[in-house]
Each structure stands twice: as C-alpha cells, then as structure tokens.
Design brief:
The protein is built from 2 helices and 9 strands. The chain has 172 residues and is an alpha+beta fold. Strands 1, 2, 3, 4, 5, 6, 7, 8 and 9 form a 9-stranded antiparallel sheet that branches.
C-alpha cells in the first residue's frame, strides 16, 4: 500500500516537472499586411520559447500566402526574430524568386501587436514570377492569435486514473 502511494506521488511529481520544463508556444498572424500594389500578404506562425526567454524563441510559419508567387511556407525559408522577419526562396530559377523583409517598429510580444516599420529602407519585397514585383509595404502588423487551451496530456490522465483507483482501495 505504501509502495503504491509512493510510486504514484513520484510519478505525479515527475509529470509536473516534465510539464514545467516544456516550452511555451504562441501563435501569431500577419494582419493587414498590404504591399504598395494593393495586394495582401497573409500568414500565421508559431513562436516556441522558454517561459523565461521569449526573445530567443524560434518561429515556424504554419501558413503563408504571398502575392505574385505560388511559393508558400513549405518551400520558402523564413527567419523569424522578434524584431523582423525575412522570407526568401532558396534557389536560382529564372523569373522566380522571393525576397521579403518585414521590419517591426518594436519587437512582437505574446501580449499585443507589433507594427511594421514602413520607412522605405525598412520593410520591402522583391517577388519574381511572370515579371518582377519590387516595392514596399503600406501597412501591417504581427498579432498574437487567441489560443485554445491544450487538451489534458496522457500523463495527467493516467495519473488521475491511478489516484482514483488508489482512493477507491483506501475507502474499502
């Protein structure tokens, strides 16, 4: 009886330690990002970070739609930092390329939007296809997306079942 209780206490504490050691994730979206030709760029990305070190996290686009090209998050290289995002196409293909730089006025945070720096030397694009499209951005921001609570993990479900079984045995 004592052995079982000790096992489940240790098991539960280990699960809490693993959960606390895991990284946090915040999803962001490109909001009202308009190119100077009137087209819109859209996308979402996840930012994974340690709770005590948000700025040194890593970003990964989960969707990306760029005007004037069929390339997206699957074949573009995106370097996401809290102060800027650079998106490029890896390759040297005639009449095909993507070179985008989104510079932010302030770093993005999990709590609110960060607006694009719209100075002509900051946020700009060069997109190839059937002709080249070069220019600057007219507007836009990076905004956190409201998150949905994560489901209960298998570890917690098993720990809960074990503790329920232990309580039933003790009540007999």
């Amino acid at each position: 009886m004592i052995k079982n209780l000790c096992f489940w206490i240790i098991f539960g504490c280990a699960n809490l330690a693993v959960l606390n050691a895991s990284a946090d994730i915040v999803d962001f979206q490109l909001t009202n990002v308009f190119l100077d030709d009137g087209t819109q760029m859209t996308g979402t990305f996840s930012w994974t970070f340690d709770a005590s070190d948000f700025p040194n996290g890593t970003g990964q686009f989960t969707s990306l739609d760029i005007p004037h090209t069929s390339h997206n998050q699957d074949d573009l290289i995106a370097v996401i930092e809290v102060g800027q995002i650079e998106i490029t196409f890896n390759g040297n293909v005639h009449d095909d390329g993507v070179d985008i730089k989104l510079v932010l006025q302030q770093p993005f945070t999990p709590d609110g939007p960060a607006f694009l720096d719209l100075a002509e030397t900051a946020s700009k694009y060069s997109i190839g296809g059937n002709g080249f499209h070069d220019g600057f951005f007219l507007s836009g921001s990076i905004e956190p997306v409201a998150s949905v609570p994560e489901p209960i993990t298998v570890h917690f479900a098993l720990a809960g079942l074990a503790l329920t079984g232990l309580a039933r045995r003790r009540s007999r």
